[in-house]
């Protein structure tokens, strides 16, 4: 259940924002995702301020959109690539490959060559078979060793599928040295939407230990620590402000050997606040005493993160007048699993009413489908440097 007024838009002039959303829907139709590049800039700057001295590589997968990448390029950001499609996207936008790292722990030889052809030189491995794939490219690459620090309480534990057990890290570093492959540093990803920075802090401390252990064994120096992503944003559940979240991480990073190059791979934190979903009520029915509203977007579309990302977005009707009662918001497909929220307090809505979902930039359109031939929401870019809507629709304060 959500609170009666979404706090994320508290400081905004509701009337004029509603008018702007209505005018975008009049122009572009429904469903829509409004992508506000100002939000991308604001998030990038906030995280840069919270993590001074850390290179921010935007992990493209939560929102692989050219406007996001161009906006971040203007901010001087770096990028975290994982697939050939992501390589092609940044190459097309003219991104300097020196500003990229490739972080997929499992790659085909053709994937490695594709990234090398573009000019990316930094890759990630977490096991001997992957390491072996770099023997032919030893002269051209530098690697990061991804470690696994399990975080069973993270919503998405990214150390289950990937990462080398720290206990076998020395053996892998030795193997790389024997094969003449440079491993320049360590990386990890403790999980996405972390409520607490505890796992990051523990992982950074463990990396410090591994760096010293490698040094004691006379292995090549480890001079990079990449702390991955996982920085949280406010959904229906609120989290700590980013500066508070990062304070213990800053302290832990200060304990690493002087001169260690520091990297982070934020995805969600940069992308999530940038998109606002707008959908329309296609039909309504009263079932077992409650209103069901059927929207033109649902969990097979922009709200796919309800399933894949376990996220409850702040959702409300654009006009929030009238008495609210427990209602159901369903998507348009014929599938009964296509329910966005099954207990949301809404005023009674009419067909055509607009529903607004906030914080819908990360892991939403990226995982949407057009199941049942319901087209994916069009993404309308505002406040980027080239869009015709530039500065016309400042959606967020
Ligand atoms: C998905 C991913 C990220 C981004 O994670 P967020 O939790 O969205 O910040 C960063 N690095 C890697 C390797 C990833 O797979």
Automatic annotation (TrEMBL):
Name of the featured protein: Type III PLP-dependent enzyme
Q: Where is the Orn/DAP/Arg decarboxylase 2 N-terminal domain?
A: 39-272
**What InterPro entries does the record point to?**
Ala_racemase/Decarboxylase_C, De-COase2_CS, De-COase2_N, Orn/DAP/Arg_de-COase, Orn_de-COase, PLP-binding_barrel
> What keywords are annotated for this sequence in UniProt?
Lyase, Pyridoxal phosphate
Q: Which organism is it from?
A: Neptunicella marina
Similarity comment text for this entry: Belongs to the Orn/Lys/Arg decarboxylase class-II family.
Q: Which residues form the active site?
A: 334
Superkingdom of the organism of origin: Bacteria
Which cofactors must be present for this protein to function? pyridoxal 5'-phosphate
Q: Name the SUPFAM superfamilies on file.
A: Alanine racemase C-terminal domain-like, PLP-binding barrel
Q: Which GO terms describe its cellular component?
A: cytoplasm
PROSITE patterns given in the database record: ODR_DC_2_2 (PS00879)
One Gene Ontology BP term is:
putrescine biosynthetic process from arginine, via ornithine
* Gene3D superfamilies, per the entry: Alanine racemase (3.20.20.10), Lyase, Ornithine Decarboxylase, Chain A, domain 1 (2.40.37.10)
